[in-house]
Amino acid sequence: MHLLLIAREGVDLNTTLFASETSREILRFYRPEKRSYGISIRVISLGAALSLAAELRWYLRRYVALTLFEMAPRRFCTLAYAHAIEEREVDPDTPPTDRRYLVIRDGTVREANAGDEGAVEVWALPGERITV
Question: Domain of 40?
Answer without folding.
Answer: 2-93
